[in-house]
Amino acid sequence: MNIIKKIILFMAKIIFYIYGFLWTIKPRKYNSIEEIINDFYINFLRIDKKYVHIIKIDKKEAIIRCDNPCPILKLSMILNLDTKFVCKYISEPVCSYVLKRMNSKIIFERNYDYIRSYKDSCEEHIYLQ
Hints:
Helices cover about 50% and strands about 20% of the residues. By secondary structure, it is of the alpha+beta class. It has a single domain (about 5-129), classed as Muramoyl-pentapeptide Carboxypeptidase, domain 2 (2-Layer Sandwich). β1 and β2 (about 60-65) form a beta hairpin. α1 (about 5-25) runs parallel beside α4 (about 85-100).
C-alpha cells in the first residue's frame, strides 16, 4: 500500500474517532440492548432504519446486518482496498469505543466472514457481559 493510501486511511480514522468522541460527550442512559442498538445505528452511525436488520436480539446479545450506503465500503472501493482491512482499521475500533462509552459492559464484534463486498450486507454482534 502506498503512502497516499495510508495517509487517507489514517485521516479517515482520526476524523471518525473525533466524531465518536464528540458524540459520546453527552451522557445517555439505556434500559435495554434495543435502546443501545437504536441509538448507535440510527443516531451515531446515522443509518436509515430501513437498512438496519436485527437478525437476533435478547437481553444479552444482538446480531445486526446493515446494507446501507456505507462510506467505509465506498472508501475501500475508491482506494481499491479490501473492505475487511479498511473496516478493521477505521470502523471497528471507533465503533467499539463508542459502544463502550454507551455501556462499559458491551463487547462489539464484526463478522468478517459476512461483510460487503463479499456478502449483501455487513453483520455485527453486540454482547452485554
